[in-house]
Amino acid sequence: EVGSPFDPGRAIVAPVLAARRRRAIDVAVLTHPHPDHFGGLASALPALAVSELWESGEGEAHGAHGAYAALLAGVRARGVRVVRPKDLCGAPRRLSGATIEVIAPCPSFDPDRGANDNSLVLRIGFGRRHALLVGDAEHEAEGELLRASPDRVRADLLKIGHHGSRTSTTRAFVDAVAPSFAAISCGVRNRFGHPHPNTLATLRAAGVPYARTDRDGAIRWSTDGDRISIATAAEGW
């Protein structure tokens, strides 16, 4: 959450990677230049060898400063390639057996939209299964996805937009994605009241089960390309 002293990079991401003995990653993705999304990266990335950082470019175009500018300067100093939508949209990438498609913002961010609606949207496939990660995309971006890429949003897992805010997750979008499960990333007792009751009602009405990080802890969704398994920290995985 913005303004919180909690650092998810140091407290969650780094320990998980260390436990799995992961010292290098192919790609780190920053969906958009808001502190609650890049803050954890700033503390997690220095301990890793990283090939590429994918991000929208909106922050630099609008005059990057502070921690965000320091993050970009730091990765570039280490030789990490910063990749923008113009080089990501179009042909899917293949990484470790997975297919990764960047389906928004394409071909670049829209200067007339806010950062949330310029979030990188990724569809990750493994075998017949897919996950759709929409960053903080709100109603406008969801509508554009349905108009521009209706055949590319369907997924088994939907990472709910904007922490479950009332400005995201329309019923039309949920129906188009048709997920078998939804994940909501939100802070404990966050001051914004995420996830909003309307968002939860939409998911229930659509018959989509969900987990939320404020109550269930970390969420693990995995697939072998056919079967799907879901576990949460609250279940004692």
Write the layout of secondary structure elements.
Blueprint lengths: L7 H12 L4 E7 L4 H10 L4 E7 L2 H4 L4 H12 L3 E3 L1 H4 L4 E3 L2 E7 L16 E6 L2 E5 L5 H10 L8 E3 L11 H7 L3 E4 L12 H9 L4 E3 H4 L2 E5 L4 E5 L5
Parallel strand pairs: 1-2, 2-3, 7-8, 8-9, 9-10
Antiparallel strand pairs: 4-5, 5-6, 6-7, 11-12
Helix pairs in contact: 1-2, 2-4
Write structural notes for this entry.
By secondary structure, the chain is α/β, with parallel strands linked by helices. It has helices at residues 8-19, 35-44, 58-61, 66-77, 85-88, 139-148, 171-177, 197-205, 213-216, and strands at 24-30, 49-55, 81-83, 93-95, 98-104, 121-126, 129-133, 157-159, 181-184, 210-212, 219-223, 228-232. The chain has a seven-stranded mixed beta sheet with strand order 4-5-6-7-8-9-10. Strands 1-2-3 form a three-stranded parallel beta sheet. Strand 4 and strand 5 form a beta hairpin. Helix 1 (8-19) packs across helix 2 (35-44) and helix 2 (35-44) runs parallel beside helix 4 (66-77). The protein is globular, with a radius of gyration of 17 Å.
Structure classification: alpha/beta
Please give the largest β-sheet: 7 strands, mixed
* Beta-strand content bin: 15-25%
Rg, alpha carbons: 17 Å
Q: Counting H and I runs of at least 4 residues, what is the number of helices?
A: 9
Summary?
With 237 residues, the protein is an alpha/beta fold.
Attribute tags:
9 helices, seven-stranded mixed β-sheet, 30% helix, 24% strand, three-stranded parallel β-sheet, 237 residues
